[in-house]
Specification:
alpha+beta, Rhopdopsin 7-helix transmembrane proteins, Beta-Lactamase, Alpha-Beta Plaits, six-stranded mixed sheet, five-stranded antiparallel sheet, 17 helices, 51% helix
């Protein structure tokens, strides 16, 4: 039989809330690693409050003593689970070493053993009795009661300190969760400290800790349902090294951002602090473009670019799934490795592969890569196009008389002056030795001859300075223009320009010859 007491109702409400929280959390255990631990914590506290409610309502001293002992099944495991959960939640489970696990397990088993065998040794209670008007038992304590109390204080205080340190190091979104967990954990301890050391006892006829567990349960409920304390958790916070020179974005199973390290925050700007809890595609509007799906089961890698301060930066984005100990997918981590310097180096190597090292203009290989496309367009759409070839006159004698450095200086001068007279659409390259070639799209015969003549005169009038000498330079030119011929190839066009160039040299050099199917015409 049980007797009604006005304190029974709030304690039962507390019990129901704790059990419901435990059941709800237990259902999340397949998705969230720490959900099962959180469920056990709440169930332990629920057992604590339920047994205390039954103690209050029991009409006999023997019944009250039985339930007073039974409540230690929860009041001993509860603080231990509080502590263990705080380690898991803040990603410090590596602190839970084997010796510590053994110590915590011993604390639970030994305490429960001492309580249930108290009649044999009276280590916990030396005397248990009832006072008129008080629904709970009164007792005089043995030495182990103080050992238990110190252990409980130490475990709860350690949990609170872990949460406080965690609060200081996480983004704002997680602080709202952690402050509720801190309050929910510290509140019963704080009440007991006030009662034991200050004498503040708001409810002198009952255990204040049990009553205030109701408020703790409400704090946990708000953390769980309002701020998704188990669904959006710092699943990889320990991986986010604050000083790492790479970006890390951690996502939960629904693709919501749960962590950005300082590298990414700097990359995305100051507003990135508001990204926590948002979907990844919402933060990608800031410039990053990453192909991501919350259903990715294997690691993928791609190259992405990001324009900052007007300059492109390049990254390797690696997306890897995060799995819990049961191999369930619980999120993803995106790492961004800055390859900007490497990318620019590759681009420079590619440029050098396309460039003649001596003259810094396009080389022969890249000329053909570019010219093939231009020539095909001209052929298909019947556009005008000209090929210009020039060869420096008597170049061997320059090398023989002044040396190869003088010859290099002349080649650089000719390349620079010719390039400066080309249009942006023209393709000009060193063809080999002292020979240069130009492809002139949308250029008439008159325009091509005018360009060649302008260059010819410039070279003829110029003096190339080399050491103490002033070198005179001339060049011979050959021109070929596209004809309405089916099957004509770029190589054939170049050969025609080369034939015209040979004709210019044969006829006295320093002149321009336009290739024609009939005998060539010359322009002095």
């Amino acid at each position: 039989m049980f007797e009604y007491t006005p304190y029974f109702l709030p304690i039962i409400i507390s019990t129901l809330i704790l059990f419901l929280l435990g059941i709800y959390s237990f259902r999340l255990r397949d998705k969230v690693e720490i959900a099962g631990l959180f469920a056990l914590q709440n169930l332990a506290m629920g057992v604590w409050t339920l047994c205390y409610a039954l103690e209050l309502s029991s009409p006999t001293l023997e019944g009250k003593i039985l339930w007073a002992k039974m409540k230690y099944l929860g009041s001993t495991t509860g603080p231990v689970l509080w502590f263990v959960f705080s380690l898991y939640y803040t990603n410090h489970k590596n602190w839970l070493t084997l010796p510590l696990k053994m110590l915590l397990g011993f604390f639970i088993l030994f305490t429960v053993g001492v309580v249930f065998t108290n009649d044999l040794h009276h280590w916990y209670w030396t005397k248990i009795f009832l006072l008129p008007g008080f629904p709970e038992t009164q007792s005089e304590h043995g030495f182990y009661f103080w050992v238990y109390a110190a252990g409980m204080y130490l475990l709860i205080l350690a949990s609170v300190m872990i949460y406080i340190n965690y609060y200081r190091t996480v983004p704002v979104y997680f602080r709202r969760q952690s402050i509720l967990l801190v309050l929910g954990t510290f509140l019963p301890l704080g009440i007991r400290i006030l009662e034991d050391f200050v004498g503040w006892d708001p409810f002198p006829k009952v255990d204040n800790i049990i009553l205030f567990l109701l408020i703790s349960a409400l704090f946990y409920a708000v953390a769980l349902f309002r701020f998704s304390a188990l669904e959006i958790v710092p699943i990889a916070h320990s991986l986010v090294v604050q000083t790492i020179n790479s970006g890390i974005i951690v996502l939960d199973a629904l693709g919501r951002v749960v962590e950005l390290n300082p590298f990414v925050q700097k990359l995305l700007g100051t507003e990135s602090r508001t990204f926590i809890g948002k979907k990844l595609d919402e933060i990608l509007n800031s410039g990053l473009r990453i192909k991501y799906s919350p259903y990715m089961l294997i690691q993928v890698e791609e190259e992405v670019s990001f324009v900052r301060n007007g300059n492109p930066e390049y990254f390797i984005a690696q997306i890897a799934p995060i799995r819990d100990e049961r191999k369930n997918l619980i999120g993803h981590v995106i790492s961004l490795v800055d390859i900007t310097e490497r990318k620019y180096a590759e681009m420079e190597l590619e440029r050098l592969a396309r460039t003649d090292m001596l003259t810094a203009i396009t080389n022969r290989r890249h000329f053909f890569e570019l010219a093939e496309g231009q020539f095909a367009v001209a052929q298909r759409y019947n556009h005008q196009l000209a090929i210009l070839m020039l060869d420096i006159d008597h170049f061997k004698s320059i090398n023989d008389q002044y040396g190869h450095l003088a010859g290099d200086t002349v080649l650089q001068f000719v390349a620079r002056e010719c390039q400066s007279h080309m249009r942006s659409t023209d393709i000009f390259a060193r063809y080999g030795g002292e020979e240069f070639i130009g492809l002139l799209p949308e250029q008439t015969e008159e325009g091509a001859v005018e360009l060649a003549e302008r260059i010819r005169q410039l070279l003829e009038q110029a003096e190339v300075k080399f050491e103490v000498w002033s070198l005179k330079v001339t060049a011979s030119f050959g021109l070929a223009l596209i004809q309405n011929e089916s099957g004509l190839t770029l190589e054939q066009m170049i050969d025609r320009a080369d034939q015209a160039l040979y004709q210019s040299k044969k006829n006295g050099r320093n002149r321009i010859t336009v290739w024609q199917a009939a005998p060539s015409s010359e322009i002095d």
